[in-house]
Amino acid sequence: MDTPKESWLASLMTIAWAPFRGSRRLPGRHKKIGEHIMNMKKLASLAMTPLVVGGIAVAVPIAGATAASAVPSQCQVGKPNENTGFAICRAGTGQVRVKVTCEDGITGNRHFAYGPWKGVDKKSQVACGAPQRYIVALVDYQRR
Questions:
Q1: Domain segments of the chain: what residues?
Q2: Is pTM beyond 0.90 here?
């Protein structure tokens, strides 16, 4: 029994051959028929490419959704001093890191500082920079 791909290709070839059924072979005509069949095979091959690529495109988000669902929970943030922020998660799986919004005390400009990725029950901590100049404006966290 033919596989679905082979039966699909066989039906395509039957359709491709239909215009030539019952026609007499004229000199040089069989060469054109052969070229036509080769073009149809190329078309069939190209038609399968989006299906294969589409299958990969569908498989990746499904695999990604499984990994993304494993995130830590019961997270806390803190500011032990004016220049440092930390984050820690007490439950779940995955990792957490602190995201601190730092403010320049002279210019008022803001930038982000990120702590290292840490597992559950481990503290991620980061300082803004020179304690004489930068202060922590906001402490947040990211999970993965």
A1: 4-68, 72-143
A2: no
